[in-house]
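Batch 3, record 17
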Amino acid sequence: MAQILRAELNNAEGFESPIVNNDNTKNLCLVSPVPDICKNDPCMLGIDEAGRGPVLGPMVYGICYCPLDYEAELKVLGAVDSKSIDDKKREEMFGKLCEHPDQVGWAVEVISPTTISNDMLRRSKISLNELSHNSAINLVKRALEDGVNVKEVYVDTVGPPEKYQDKLSKIFPNIKVTVAKKADAIYPVVSAASICAKVCRDKAVSNWKFKENIEIVGDAWGSGYPGDPATKKFLQANLDPVFGFPQLVRFSWSTAEKITDEKCAPFEWSDDEEDGAVAKTASIQSFFSPANSTKQSIQLSHKFFTERKMKRCTDMF
Amino acid sequence: MELVYDEAAPESKQVHLLPCKIHYDGASNFSKYVNIEKNEENEMQQTSIHGRALNGKHIKLPEKFQGLFVTKSQSASEKAFVTSTFESFTAWNYDKLPSKNDVAQKVWDWISVSEVLHADDDSDKDLE
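Prediction for the assembled complex:
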């Protein structure tokens, strides 16, 4: 349900305005124009993610694609594992990809920290792996809908590679899917996807506008990884005694949960349906016991009232 | 217990019924931290508190009814004061779309039931 923006970017700075203008509690898809050649010639498509581990900011999924015979060129452009190069080099590399809109297309999905927390904390929880798979699948589907002639897909694995490869092959039966560990270091097209994702994630985090309108104590939150002392300090310093963290923070991370549990007013979430189910279902044994040995609970109030949580009130306090 | 009702008690514009118990009493930064998104078409509302997705619906109190915030008098133990009033509130569910089955919506059934039960009915008098 992300907003989709078709964007022709010239460089990494191009990410800033759509990201800043987006409601950062919501997901956002940025999609490059599809090069004409990619609609005709068979293409390879790489998928990678950035910002999976951090307790702060969005996770960004990226795809990048080009004609099969353009792979060597990608390598020349400098498509190398995004983790092996620094921020500046990565932005440069992204700029180079943008200089070849006739050969290279890309798309990113910014998955907001609010979406991540909400999904992971749903009544039926959605794991981060599932969330990741869904994002990757949707990006590929959109590329196909846009007319990209995808023949091969390369993915850096999330979870066990065999299972993920099976899942993707079933969804995309006409595409040769390769899921591999460290795919971002092996396949240039995955390196390129990884660069798109990482550059976008960095822009999203560094341009974060706090909806909460709060003064941020300390000007840096470090890498966002839970183990980073700067990140820890940021979490401790920017805590509301009731509502906890701003939406930048993934509440579903154990690091964040631990802090809210320890320092915020305790929240007790009601789960009406579960309570109800427990109360209504009698144990199997109770059906076999002599009738008078089971304690009959005294029905104090008619169902009409209990269903509506109504109680007779005689004292105001 | 005497309820001291001041007609001039200010009306609260925003009252929220949350699907959680918060062990906290006092002012909070609700409006800063709780960003509410309203869908104009189906009147559903959406927000996130402590990372949980909440779905809400604005509910008007029935006609002739008014919500009251009451505080116990510090000095006179038999008195309570109305500090503010409300005509509507937002009922929130934890990751569940609001529906007619929600307590906050069906509790008002009682009003019509109670009217029937407690109405002065002339036919009863005839029987007496």
